[in-house]
Amino acid sequence: MALLSKKDANLILDPLADNNPITIQVLGICSALAITAELKASVVMALSVLFVLGAGNVVISLLRNVIPSKIRIIVQLVVVATLVIIVDQVLKAFAYELSKTLSVFVGLIITNCIIMGRFEAFALGNGPWKSFLDGIGNALGYGIILVIIGFFRELLGSGTLFGFPVLGDPVTKTGLYALGYENNGFMIIPPAALIVVGIVIWVQRSRNRTLIEEA
Amino acid sequence: MGLKEKLHTFRIKNQDKKWFPVFSGFHTFLFTPNETTHNGTHIKGADDLKRTMNTVVMSLVPCLIFGMFNTGYQHYLALGEIEPVANGFFSAGFWAMDNFLLGLWKVLPLVIVSYGVGLAIEFLFCVIKKHEIEEGYLVTGMLVPLIVPVDLPLWMLAVAVAFGVVIGKEVFGGTGMNILNPALTIRAFLFFAYPTWMSGDKVWVHGAVDTAGTADAISGETVLGFLAQGRTAEMGYSLSDMFFGFIPGSIGETSTLLILLGGLFLVFSKIASWRIMLSAVLGALAMGLIFNSVVDAGWIPEYSKFYTLMSFEYWQHLLVGGLAFGIVFMATDPVTGSQTNQGKWIYGFLIGFLSVMIRVFNPGYPEGVFLAILLMNVFAPTIDHYVVRGNIKKRLKRLKTATIYPKASDEVDALKTETA
Predict the structure, then answer these.
(1) pTM
(2) Left, alpha or beta for A29 (phi > 0: left; psi -120 to 50: alpha)?
(3) Cross-referenced InterPro entries, in alphabetical order (chain B) (predicted)?
(4) Which of B167, B192, B194 sits opposite A182 (nearest CB)?
């Protein structure tokens, strides 16, 4: 027997591609633009959201029958705020430099539409196991796009990956730089992230034409 | 059977081939196809997109040739091998063969790369989309080499052109559908991606980058660069130098005289809108006057970093930098500019106004023209929208005060009640 039934597997696989939170639902764009100048920050952000969304979905799902529907948004906010504070404190304790780069954007996970969206749309109506899978799937879908953007922006903008120089040294002119190559300063600024997201969306929709909305 | 007929039969035979758009592009570039229409419009104007584009390219050629001479002139002048010219526009020291050959050697590769990369992408997209080749790139390809510094590495230009054509134009649906002027998108990309090659005092004269830091170092500060740093005393350019274009700058933008001629040609051939040009000039003058009067009123102390640029004689803003070039050749782009006549006045005025404002307030971007035009490109549809709305409102108001005769439907109703 497979580890997951086909239906459960789809909960994880769907948001990775055909129902991706960033490229298809166009949620969580702000953080995708703000912190993807470096691959490291993208990965940490993706992991933070993975934790918050996975755990949050389970908690909300467990509480779903006791939350009065009139105040459910407040309860959801309390849950997500608690989890975000945990993430923030852990980052500050173990990766202080990185937490400074991410600055407010860890705190702003609270307002990330993907999280509230999954709570509302899925966790309130499904059991904890399914909600967990759904949370993981959406967080991975978010993370994969972040990593793609971070990869291209760091590679083209700074010539590094995870901080390691992969294209040579721009100061002493080795590797590609010896041939006259230069880093593209445009990739470091947030508008470039918007364009990279646009290109990802373009590539995805031209590979799978059913995703194109009717005009 | 002549060549022309042979091409036509070839055209009909291969209509369904994948490479047909490429052939068709070259064919219609040289000949008018002998296809006749079967319905709808039978008489068409001869000034189709290709002719329009070619007219603009023709008006740019003087700037290009001048840019080649100026490249050589500025280089040899900076090296101290020739004396500055002082005998008016037709000085022999400027129009020397040596100057031209060096310029040709430096500028021609930029033109070839710009056209090569841009047209290749354009052709590729047409083959994929099974469209006819769109000629939009003919002008962009000529504009791009004219608005970049002469020592720009060719690969950077190629990257920027690819970016500008794909992201600036093709994703919106190709020629005629773009929101931003592609040539300026390319320049903006270069400016933000490789700022060290697009600004400073080293890039405007050929050879200045290579010799930087050595004993033979030469500098080629632009007029705006001098002004932004408050070093007016060192600047040895006379007004006629600025007007004729014997100053360092991007390749084709220096000669206000030739830009003016190109602009007149475009106005008389009715390709470009004189409303935009005129209102942009007025806008620049207005902003310049405001700055001048602020200085005259004594509100700006002399040690302020804005003082030199603010006190720069208001009409001279039109002579330096790319303002004139931008106004004549970029702001008037019929696709990205405003379409309504009233809108053109507002659009042009704000371009001139903002250009001078950016120029003065941000010494980091001594050339604000391309930013101002791009910004107004974005606003052009909004301006048009409100102009059209305003017109509708005006006419509705007129309707209220007008005498309205009984409508035909009223008579029908009256007839119905009668017969009932």
Answers:
(1) 0.85
(2) alpha
(3) NqrB, NqrB/RnfD
(4) B194
Chain A residues in contact with B154 by the CB 8 A cut-off are none
**In-domain check, residue A5:** no
**B195 interfaces chain A, CB cutoff of 8 Å:** yes
* Nearby residues of A195 by Cβ (< 8 Å), 6 or more positions away: B167
- Residue A135 and residue A52: Cα distance in Å, rounded? 9
A163 contact B CB<8A: no
Q: Which residues of B touch A201 (CB under 8 A)?
A: none
Euclidean distance between CA atoms B21 and B26, whole angstroms:
9
* Nearest CA-CA partner of B204 in B254, B154, B258: B254
Query: Who among B171, B193, B197 is closest to A186 (CB)?
Result: B193
Q: How far apart are CA B219 and CA B64, in angstroms?
A: 23
B40 contacts: CB under 8 Å, gap ≥ 6: none
The count of C-alpha atoms lying within 13 angstroms of the C-alpha of A3, restricted to the half-sphere facing its C-beta, is: 4
Look at chain A and report how many structural domains it folds into. Answer: 1
- Please state, in angstroms and rounded to a whole number, the distance separating the CA atoms of residues B62 and B255: 10
Q: Which of A28, A23, A18 is nearest to A201 (CA)?
A: A23
Residue found by looking up tokens 């991410």 in the block: A102
Report which residue type is found at B283.
Answer: G
**What type of residue is A196?**
V
How far is Cα B199 from Cα B224, in angstroms, rounded to an integer? 11
Domain residues for A56? 22-204
Cα torsion B224, B225, B230, B235: sign = negative
Residues of B in contact with A185 (CB under 8 A): 192-195
Range in A87-91, A93-97, B12-16, B101-105 the model is least confident about: B12-16
B17 by Cβ neighbours in 10 Å (0-12 / 13-18 / 19+) ranks as exposed
Partners of A160 in the β-ladder: A165
Instruction: Write the pLDDT tens digit of every residue in B124-170.
Output: 888 888 777 777 788 899 999 999 988 888 999 999 999 999 988 88
Q: Which class for B66: exposed (0-12), middle (13-18), buried (19 or more C-beta within 10 A)?
A: buried
Q: Is B375 on the interface with A (CB under 8 A)?
A: no
Residue A2: inside a domain, yes or no?
Answer: no
Give residue B342's identity as a one-letter amino acid code: Q
Q: Please name the member of A181, A185, A198 whose beta carbon is closest to the beta carbon of B193.
A: A185
The whole-angstrom distance between residue A23's C-alpha and the CA centroid of its chain comes to 11
pLDDT one-digit tens code per residue, B185-203: 999 999 988 888 887 777 7
Instruction: State yes or no: pLDDT of B246 exceeds 70.
Output: yes
Nearest residue of B to residue A182, measured between CA atoms: B194
Q: Would residue A8 count as lying in a domain?
A: no
Structure tokens at B390: 């305003």
The residue in chain B having the minimum alpha-carbon distance to the alpha carbon of residue A189 is B192
So what's the pLDDT on residue B212? 66
Token couple for B171? 């994703």
What ipTM, to 2 d.p.?
0.83
Distance CA A15, CA A25 (A): 10
B160-170 per-residue burial string, b: 16 or more CB within 10 A, e: under 16: bbbbbbbbbbb
Question: Taking CB atoms and an 8 Å limit, are B193 and A180 in contact across chains?
Answer: no
In chain B, % of residues over pLDDT 90: 30
Does A75 fall in a domain? yes
